Structures are given as structure tokens and as C-alpha cells.
Amino acid sequence: MLRIGLGLWWLESWRHKDKKAWFERGTGIAWAADVAAKHRWSVVRGGFDAVVAPRPRTMAYVVVYAELALGLGLIVGLLTPLALVGGLLLNLFYLVLMIHDWAEQGQNSMMALISVVGLFGMSWQTWSLDSAFGLFQ
């Protein structure tokens, strides 16, 4: 049940994004670039400048569709361990980037914790396509 709830959370993160603004105007990545530029840790600024800044349009698609894929994968339980690890990494990236925003810290730390619980609880064994197909036994 926790896995499905986490999937719904990711799906809502995808649903409420203004895709036109993200893809056509680059608002999501521009906002993240502003946050990264002011970050107190140089590794965050440097990492953002090296990985995200040179390809903002591509990264906008990666972020938006990663959230959709995570949500759908967790809801139906398809490739669940991969979705849990991917979600954990994405939450940790968000958490580090937004380390000064208490609201973001709460959301991302809770989602990361649920991912860890889902991994150790092997949440793909019930109510999942992984279980139906005999994956990750």
C-alpha cells in the first residue's frame, strides 16, 4: 500500500507541473538554476553547471517524464526496485539542491524514506505486475 501511495505522490508531482512552461519556456530548469547559483555548496553549483545548465531542454524532459515513469511504475508495481532506487536518487538530488527550503526538505525526505522502506520491505512482492510476471523473486 505504501508503494502505491508513493507512486500516487510522484504522479501528482508530474500532474501539477505546467508542462508548457517547463518545455517551451524552461521555467523549471531556470528556477533550479537560480537556486543552484545561490547554493552555499560549490559541488552543487559546479555539478548543476556541468550536467544540467548545458542542456536545459533535455533536462526538463528528463525531470518531468522521470516523475511520470516513477509514478506509473510504483502504482502498478512494474520494475518496482528500479523505480524505488530511481525515486530515491531523484529525491536525494532534490533534497540537496533545495537544502535551504524546509518544505522541500520535508517532502523529499519523506519520499526518500518511503523508497527505502519499500526496498527493504520488498514491496514488489504483492499487488504488483512484478509479482504477476515473477520478476525479482
Automatic annotation (TrEMBL):
Transmembrane segments: 68-97, 109-127
Membrane topology: Multi-pass membrane protein
Transmembrane helix among keywords: yes
Cellular localization per UniProt: Membrane
UniProt entry tagged with the keyword Transmembrane: yes
Principal cellular location given in the protein's record: membrane
Keywords: Membrane, Transmembrane, Transmembrane helix
UniProt GO cellular component terms: membrane
Descriptive protein name: DoxX family protein
Organism: Streptomyces avermitilis (strain ATCC 31267 / DSM 46492 / JCM 5070 / NBRC 14893 / NCIMB 12804 / NRRL 8165 / MA-4680)
